[in-house]
Design a protein that fits this description.
This protein is mainly alpha-helical. Helix content is 54%, strand content 7%.
Length: 332
C-alpha cells in the first residue's frame, strides 16, 4: 500500500477552504493509503508563538482532525513534536543540504522579508533551516507520495535532492518520495475577493468562513458575498468568479456538480442562502464532535499518545538506519 504524509500547522483558524479543499479528502485517502497525518507544531515556532496559545491551538487542531473524520484506528494521527526522531533526522539532513540550497528557498525569502517588515528584531535560524525538518518529516516515514500544492513544490524537490545525495554518499538508505497532485474536493475562494483563495492570513475577515464559526455569522457572510452586476447564474470562474465560488461551495457541501446547480437559480439571493444552509449543515456535526473532545479531553489524550507511539515505531527504524549508514557508533 502506498504511504502518504500530510501535515497542518496549529496556527490561525482552520477555515472552510481547508476543510472542503483538503481535510475532507484526507478522510477518504485514509482508506486508500497507509496515511500519516500530523499537527506540525515544530514548524509553527519558526516565528514567535505565545506558549499557551501554541499548546491550546495544537490540542484544538488534533481535536479538529478527529472531528472531521480521521480515524486513529485507520491512519496514524500524531503531534510532530511528540516524535523526537524528527529533530534527530533533521540534524543529519542539515549536514547533507548546502547553505546555498537553503538560501534559495522562496518561502524563506518571503517570510523573512515579512518578519522584517513587521519590525521583528531578528529572523530565526529555524526559519532558514526548516526545509531540512520538512524533509525529515517526509523521509522519516518512508513516504512514497506527498500531496503538495504549488507553494510547497520547491520543498519537495529539495527533499528529493537531499535524499538522493544522502543515498549517494552513504548507500541506499532513504526512500525518494514523489509529488502527488492533491485531490481537491472544492475550489474555495474568498467570499469578498473571489479571485483569491480563502486563507488563514486573509485581511478580509468577512471573506473567510471558520469551520467553528457561529451559524449566524456564517449566514451573514454568505449574504454579503461578492457576486457581480449581472443577474444570470452560471458557473464560470473566469467571467463570474463570485457566483462560481458560491456554486462550488454549494456543490462540495451537497456532493453536487456546480455547473448543474447553476441551472436551478435565477437570482443570487436564494443561491447565497442555500450555500449558507448547506455549509452550516455540513459543519454542525464537526463542531459538535470537536466540542465533545475538548470538553472531556481524556479520549483525545489517548488518541494523541497512541499516535505518537505508532509514529515513533516507524520513525525510530529510519533514524537508526540513517545513523548506521553515516557511521555513528551504536549504543550497546
Amino acid at each position: 500500500m502506498t504511504r502518504v504524509l500530510s501535515g497542518i500547522q496549529p496556527t490561525g483558524e482552520i477555515h472552510l477552504g481547508n476543510y472542503l479543499g483538503a481535510l475532507r479528502q484526507w478522510t477518504v485517502d485514509q482508506h486508500e493509503h497507509d496515511s500519516f497525518y500530523c499537527a506540525v507544531d515544530l514548524h509553527a515556532v519558526t516565528v514567535p508563538q505565545a506558549p499557551e496559545e501554541l499548546r491550546s491551538k495544537t490540542l484544538e487542531t488534533m481535536a479538529t482532525l478527529v472531528a472531521v473524520g480521521l480515524d486513529p484506528e485507520i491512519c496514524t494521527l500524531f503531534v510532530q513534536s511528540h516524535v523526537p526522531f524528527h529533530t534527530e533526522l533533521s540534524w543529519l539532513l542539515e549536514c547533507t543540504v548546502s547553505f546555498g540550497e537553503l538560501r534559495r528557498m522562496t518561502q524563506f525569502k518571503d517570510k523573512s522579508t515579512k518578519q522584517g517588515d513587521a519590525g521583528q528584531e531578528q529572523v530565526s535560524a529555524g526559519l532558514f533551516t526548516y526545509p531540512a525538518l520538512m524533509a525529515a518529516d517526509i523521509l522519516i516515514y518512508d513516504a512514497d507520495r506527498v500531496p503538495v500544492g504549488d507553494d510547497q513544490r520547491q520543498h519537495l524537490e529539495l527533499t528529493r535532492d537531499i535524499a538522493e545525495r544522502f543515498n549517494s554518499r552513504y548507500g541506499e538508505t532513504l526512500i525518494i518520495p514523489s509529488a502527488a497532485i492533491p485531490k481537491v474536493a472544492a475550489r474555495v475562494m474568498d467570499l469578498q475577493e473571489p479571485k483569491n483563495k480563502m486563507s488563514k492570513s486573509s485581511e478580509s475577515a468577512n471573506g473567510t468562513i471558520g469551520i467553528f464559526e457561529d451559524p449566524t455569522s456564517i449566514a451573514k457572510k454568505f449574504k454579503r458575498a461578492v457576486t457581480d452586476s449581472s443577474n444570470d447564474v452560471s458557473f464560470d470562474f473566469e467571467t463570474k468568479p463570485g457566483v462560481s465560488n458560491l456554486l462550488s461551495i454549494l456543490g462540495a457541501a451537497t456532493n453536487s456538480e456546480p455547473d448543474k446547480l447553476a441551472d436551478k437559480y435565477t437570482q443570487y439571493g436564494p443561491l447565497k442562502a442555500d450555500a449558507a444552509d448547506a455549509v452550516i449543515e455540513v459543519l454542525t456535526p464537526v463542531q459538535q464532535r470537536r466540542s465533545e473532545l475538548l470538553a472531556d479531553p481524556a479520549e483525545l489524550d489517548r488518541i494523541i499518545a497512541r499516535g505518537a507511539e505508532k509514529a515513533s515505531e516507524v520513525a525510530a527504524v529510519t533514524v537508526e538506519r540513517a545513523k548506521t549508514a553515516m557511521g555513528f557508533l551504536p549504543l550497546k
